[in-house]
Amino acid sequence: MKRYIGAGALVACLVSLTATVAQAQAPVEPGANWLLTQQFPSGAYPWTVGEATAEGRTQGTTARGMLAAFDLLNEPGYRDSAVRTGDFLVDSYPRTFTDGDPDIFPLDPLFLEELTHVTGDSRYSDFVQANLWDKLTAGTYGESNNQDAAAWAAAIPNFAPEFPFNSLEPLFRASPAIAAHYKGHTAIRDALMTSVLLRLNATTGTSAAARRGDLTALGAVILASAHTGTNLDPTAGRWASASNTQGLVDLLVGFQRVGGDWPYDSSTAASTAVGDVSVTNWAVYALKAWNATTYASNISSGLSFIQAQQQPDGQILTNPGFSTTTVTGVEVHAEALVAFASGDGVLLNDVPTVSLLGTATVNPGATVQVKVEHGPGNPRDWLALHTSAASDLDFLDWKYLDGSRIVPNAGERTATVSFRMPAQPGTYNIRLFEDNGPTRLATSATITVQATPVTLTVIGPTTVNVGSTVQVSVAGGPGNTTDWVGMFATSAADTAFLDWQYLSGTRTPPGAGLTAATLSFTMPSTPGTYNFRFFPIDSYVRLATSVTVTVVNPASTITVIGPSTVSPGANVQVSVQDGPGNPRDWVGLYAVGAPNSALRDWKYLNGTRTPPASGFVTATVDFTMPTSLGTYEFRFFSNNSYQLLATSGSVVVQ
After folding, report:
1. Which listed residue, of 283, 404, 562, 635, carries a Cα 20 to 30 Å from 48's Cα?
2. pTM over 0.85
3. What phi and psi values does residue 308 have, to the nearest 5 degrees?
4. Percentage of residues of the chain with pLDDT beyond 90
5. CB atoms within 10 A of CB 323
6. What is the DSSP letter of 202?
7. Are 197 and 236 in contact (CB under 8 A)?
8. Does 461 share its domain with 380?
9. Nearest-angstrom CA–CA distance, 371 and 373
10. Which parts of 454-584 fold into alpha helices (H)?
11. Residue (of 484, 332, 411) closest to 324 by Cα position
12. Which residue has better confidence, 74 or 535?
């Protein structure tokens, strides 16, 4: 046999669930609730509504409906119902050989393996391992304890009288082949798939009786081919025109009718009868598994047909217009739940996923949501935010699946959780871990935090006096409520701010994030160079820096109070403004044009030649003008030096 992966088989689960989730959820909940009413206290189910006893050969296929409903809706009651059926099978298997060993019905292994996969309880899988897989491997299975996988595959009966159809025989090999495949029992899988092909070749005869169940079996073998990767190329029998599994799919699709349904079988009589829900269930499984994208419309119309058979109490009838107590009704109803709820007809490959909801490129500090699906369902399963290259233990943030850091009372298999992205531009992802441990189960797509083009513009001059008010315009911010702007000395670290504001202009965050704002800052009283810096989400990750603002002392002035022409020896007052404030700042009287050293008189700003205890920035100082006629001026110097700060206007003595 050639082995290959059917087109789309690896992604069919996710694609199909995405395409049909709304269509699936509507009938599944009432359908599952109805199925609960049919379950016996023992955990078993009848085959037909109204039966008082459990049917030993339909427990697994029926309970799969509850398990699929739980997988879709995460309703614990549905899981518990499936567990009760699993316990019924494991604790008191209804079919046994003469020596008391379980005579495993071939549709049960798939359910029991799925039950362990979904619940994490290994005892169901262990039961199959001990009572079927190990014995087939050792060649000790069966009534005479002598069957290996090939012998069991050849001996699987058609289960007369309920299933007296040779055309249905491939189904009873396809289902355990899928279970063996996902458990890694390749030899058992291959023996069963070889037997599937032999049974396809043996599907012959043209009578209606010879065709009964053949379309159900066709759906089952396509399902098995998609999951196991085994190509099926029948060389004889009814399906010999197909040269591969794709050819079988084409044949199956050809039997779908305009109402979305498939007939009971390939006979002419069936083609004119009402549609059959069971066959349509298996056809939907097959097309979802083979290529859910290509056959999306076939799947959707098939599901619509099935849904149309749902009654007000939730029961899905076996056929349009049939009685609620039609034989096989409970099992067919459960199969329909699997058709709606399962991504590809099988739950064993529903691996945990973390899907990003929304865009994968965001601004610093943005909130992103991820959806977890098919998680283990432990209360302590957790998500963590990482840089893309970080080790699993080097996370930036983490939460349980309820979005908190408090262990929830119950686990969730499906959850939507929000994370705030870091301020630092870069690439990140969110990872799912199991039960407070380091085992990573799934990783989201990469999330890129982009470097937003934030700008900080100083409005007005960039050289200002000490204590001046400077306005800064912010544009292109990421829009978080706790984005902020700080004022810094140009050489200062980002943590050493002198003043700061949110974009609200206060130290209280705005009610909603702002991407633009105009802020006012009072510049320091110390001359120097300063700048403004933008940071997102209360962090110190700098996204923008303004131009430098130079803060200077205001220019000192010295002004003659009164007339500019005076008599010899007159008293003149001069006013000093905006001095540097040194105790030894001083004013000198000069003839215009004289060097600074040729002063006629001088005084400190206290009006004497004894420096004050502390400096003045403003003062009024009295001088007696010379008796010599001429033109004079006053000069203001810094700190006992000849550093000239200001010169007054001329005073003429005449």
Report:
1. 283
2. no
3. -65, -15
4. 83
5. 12
6. T
7. no
8. no
9. 6
10. none
11. 332
12. 535
